[in-house]
Amino acid sequence: VYIIGDVHANSFVVNNVAQNNGVGFVFVDIYGTVSGNLAERNPLGGFDFFNVEAGGVVSGNVARDNGLAGFLFEDVAGTFSGNTASGNHVGFDFIDVLAGGVFSGNTATRNIEGFFFEDVAGTFSGNTASYNLDDGFNFFNVETGGVFSGNTASYNDGNGYYLENVHGLFAGNTATGNKDDGFEFLDVALGGTFTGNTSTANGDDGFDFLLITVGGTFSDNVANDNLDLGYDGAHLGGTVHNNTGSGNANGHNSFP
Fold this sequence. Notes:
The chain has 256 residues and is mainly beta. 0% of the residues lie in helices and 46% in strands. It has no helices and 40 strands. It has strands spanning 2-3, 12-14, 17-19, 25-26, 29-30, 33-35, 38-40, 47-48, 51-52, 57-59, 62-64, 69-72, 75-76, 79-81, 84-86, 90-93, 96-97, 102-104, 107-109, 113-116, 119-120, 123-125, 128-130, 137-138, 141-142, 147-149, 152-154, 161-162, 165-166, 169-171, 174-176, 183-188, 193-195, 198-200, 207-212, 217-219, 222-224, 231-235, 239-241, 244-246. The strands form three sheets. The protein has an 18-stranded parallel sheet that branches. Strands 2-6-10-14-18-22-26-30-33-36-39 form an eleven-stranded parallel sheet, with no helix packed on it. It has an eleven-stranded parallel sheet with strand order 3-7-11-15-19-23-27-31-34-37-40, with no helix packed on it.
């Protein structure tokens, strides 16, 4: 096991390998750069740390075939990008992407759960979850000011995306070929915008939600060729328009 305290600003932990330990790498807080490291076949997890602080960078690391989480941490206030988790119990298990934090271009494939976290108040974009045995992305909220965009969930055995509420921006995400719903959520709430997302050929509904409430916007989404309904939800207020689809087995090809 590599046990390192804080990674200080202008310090680098790069190109190390941790295999067949308890935990691969243990850090405290990251203010510098952790890049290009491999954690493989560690029964208690790959990378375990507290926070990626403002100015900190975690990039290009690989967690493969670890027993618990590939990457286990609390918060991202810096940059967490281009990391890969495959064959772990959970690919990425953390709490929040904080305001100012960037979580982008990460890949979770063939884990039990892809991405499991709580809230996005920063930017969560361009991440990919595929062929996981449960949900691709499982989390609570996109907070006010948070951006969740351009992510891809494909061929997961659960839902593509499972979340609770959208108070920020949820835009341009795709769900394809997941065994359950493409997108399952509770509410697009006051100040939230859910727009330009595409759900195709999923095993249940394209979009399965409880309601769109006053102050929320649900627009320009597309549901095609899903095996149950295109859209399954209620509209109790807010702005809802131009949600389209075709070829859904049990109809509901538009909403409202």
